[in-house]
Amino acid sequence: MLPESGVAESAPERVVVVGGGVGGLAAALALGRAGYPVVLLEADPLPILADAEAAFAAERKGAPQVHQTHGFLARIVVELRERFPDVLETLLASGCTTMPAVADFGDVEPGDSDLAALIVRRTTFEWVLRQAVVAEPLIEMRTDVRVTGVTGATQPWSDGVVVVDGVELNDGSHQPAGVVIASTGRRGAIPEWLGAHGVDVPETIVESGLMYLSRWYRLPEGSFSVLDPKLMGDLGFVKYIAVPGDGNTLSVTLAIKAEDRDLRVALSDPDRFELACRALPGPDQFFASGSLEPCGPVRPMGGLLNRIRRFVDDDGRPTVLGFHAIGDAHTCTNPLYGRGCSLAIVQALLVTDALIEHPDDPSERARSYENGSRREVEPWYEVSVQMDELGADPAGLAGIGPGDNPGGKAVAALFVAAATDPIIGRGLARFWNLLATPRDLMSDGELLTRMAAVMADPDAYPVPPHNGPSRVELLEAIAAPTDN
Ligand SMILES: Cc1cc2nc3c(=O)[nH]c(=O)nc-3n(C[C@H](O)[C@H](O)[C@H](O)COP(=O)(O)OP(=O)(O)OC[C@H]3O[C@@H](n4cnc5c(N)ncnc54)[C@H](O)[C@@H]3O)c2cc1C
Question: How is the chain split into domains, by residue range?
Answer without folding.
Answer: 9-72+120-207+303-391, 209-302
